[in-house]
Design a protein that fits this description.
By secondary structure, this protein is of the alpha+beta class. Helix content is about 30%, strand content about 25%. It folds into two domains: about 270 residues, P-loop containing nucleotide triphosphate hydrolases (Rossmann fold, 3-Layer(aba) Sandwich), CATH 3.40.50; about 140 residues, Nucleic acid-binding proteins (OB fold (Dihydrolipoamide Acetyltransferase, E2P), Beta Barrel). The strands form five sheets. It has a six-stranded mixed sheet, with helices on both faces. The protein has a five-stranded antiparallel sheet with strand order 16-20-17-18-19, with no helix packed on it. The chain binds adenosine-5'-diphosphate and magnesium ion. Magnesium ion binds next to helix 4.
């Protein structure tokens, strides 16, 4: 076969494959834009073909200082005139920080990430990396590495060439490319596969290669869009640890998107919980778990979910509170300004206790037992209200039996049923209250 014909044939096959999305999603094309560059614009990276200087080569290898802050200011996105996909996002990511964006499908996580990468335009607002406004920079000029859920590897390139890609297109020197790829491959334990094509790798190995490609060039910012979602649970757990180690080692500022709350809790320095194109709460995993700003955050993080019970506000001996079965749970004194007829009580399953000598208890009927080995999840009915408890492994439980339970009163959460905001925030900070009402 003539070389030309072969080339044409190969091209058309690859087009067909990418057209059917077997290996490539459109992301593969756009990801390419991240590693490439446009010439003629400010900050453009020197072309591989042009005569190279030592400083060109250094630029191609990336930054030596991995620590850049990222600021998102009043960021908005409209794909069309009717709907606002992002409705004003403010987010400050400190230099070297690992921030996880978490939220239900469709809330705008990928859109946000792609805007930071330059793969989507910004409708309103500003994106700053360090003190540089990057809104109008091409993806390749932003000095960002991104890992996608479906890897977006180049199917016709070997693992080595996939990892080397970002360095190669920017014109790094051969020896440096060789060194970087070797280092990264060793770190990710994929040295043995360097000459294989992606099709000959397992899902976990492919994901390692995708991470390797992002790591090879020292970027200012690391973006991950659900990188572990396609892996089975065991691999996901392993890769999660791997990613955490890599971050500890390199300290690159990272924005990581997931809908997996375990990934969010274990990886993040801070978590941004998103809903409907907005950040509902931004805080440390401890703050998100123990001081959820809204019922949405309270129920999104934690498994089983926090029990949320809308109950009438009663008074006993002059004190306001709610009745859960026979238990009177007083509203904390600092919420005495609260005016509603009802209140939402939040109780984490681990604050629902099997009574052991407590004086204040209520009867609960056991509806369902889910043994998980180390612990047992129970579903209880307390005077008709269904609540979940997380107990140490119990072998003696029988459904349809009734026994006393107690509630850990130091761990109660109180929300306004109208605004869905935590009273601790709503009654303390009028600004947050106004926002929750809006
Ligand atoms: P997430 O990653 O949180 O699941 P996305 O950012 O992918 O959410 O999508 C947020 C919303 O924006 C969805 O309603 C989605 O349909 C819409 N959307 C995403 N990309 C586009 C696009 N290219 N054109 C129009 N609408 C889009
Ligand atoms: Mg997404």
């Amino acid at each position: 076969m003539l070389p030309v014909t072969r080339k044409v044939l190969r091209m058309s096959i690859s087009n067909i494959i990418s057209g059917f999305g077997l290996f490539h999603r459109p992301d593969a094309v756009t990801e390419k834009a991240l590693y490439e560059h446009t010439s003629g614009t400010a900050g453009a990276i020197p072309n591989a073909a042009a005569s190279k200087t030592a400083s060109d080569n250094k630029a191609a290898l990336g930054t030596n200082d991995a620590r850049f802050p990222l600021s998102l200011r009043a960021l908005e996105k409209r794909y069309d005139s009717e709907r606002q996909t992002l409705a004003g996002v403010d987010l400050e990511v400190n230099a070297g920080e690992f921030v996880v964006l978490v939220g239900p499908s469709g809330c705008g996580k990928s859109t946000l990430l792609r805007m930071v990468a330059g793969l989507e335009s910004v409708s309103e607002g500003e994106i700053l990396i360090g003190d540089q406004r990057v809104n109008d920079l091409q993806p390749g000029e932003r000095d960002i590495a991104m890992v996608f859920q479906d890897y977006a590897l180049y199917p016709h390139k070997t693992v080595f060439e996939n990892i080397a890609f970002g360095l190669r297109v920017r014109g790094a020197e051969r020896g440096d490319i060789e060194q970087r790829v070797t280092e990264v491959a060793a770190q990710l334990q994929i040295t043995d596969f360097l000459s294989r094509k992606p099709a000959a790798l397992s899902g976990g190995q492919r994901q390692r290669v995708a991470i390797g490609r992002a790591l090879a060039r020292h970027a200012r910012l690391f973006l991950f869009d659900e990188p572990l979602s396609n892996l089975d649970v065991k691999l996901r757990n392993e890769m999660r640890v791997e990613i955490k180690k890599l971050h500890q080692q390199f300290g690159i500022t990272t924005l990581y998107v997931t809908h997996d709350q375990i990934e969010a809790m274990t990886l993040a320095d801070r978590i941004a919980v998103m809903a409907n194109g907005k950040v509902e709460q931004y805080g440390t995993p401890d703050e998100i778990y123990n001081q959820p700003a809204t019922t949405f955050v309270a129920s999104f993080i934690g498994s089983p979910e926090m029990n949320l019970l809308t109950l009438p506000l009663n008074t006993q001996a002059g004190v306001g509170g709610v009745l859960l079965g026979d238990l009177f749970l007083p509203l904390p004194a600092e919420f005495s300004a609260y005016q509603g007829d009802e209140v939402v009580l939040g109780v984490r399953p681990e604050a629902v206790l099997r009574a052991q000598g407590q004086t204040e208890t209520t009867a609960a009927c056991l509806l369902l037992i889910e043994p998980l080995g180390a612990e047992t999840i129970v579903t209880l009915s307390v005077h008709g209200k269904q609540i979940a408890g997380r107990w140490a492994a119990e072998r003696t439980l029988t459904t349809a039996t009734t026994f006393p339970i107690a509630i850990d009163r130091t761990r109660l959460h109180w929300f306004d049923p109208n605004t869905r905001a935590n009273l601790a925030l709503q009654l303390v900070d009028p600004a947050i209250s106004a926002e929750a009402h809006a």
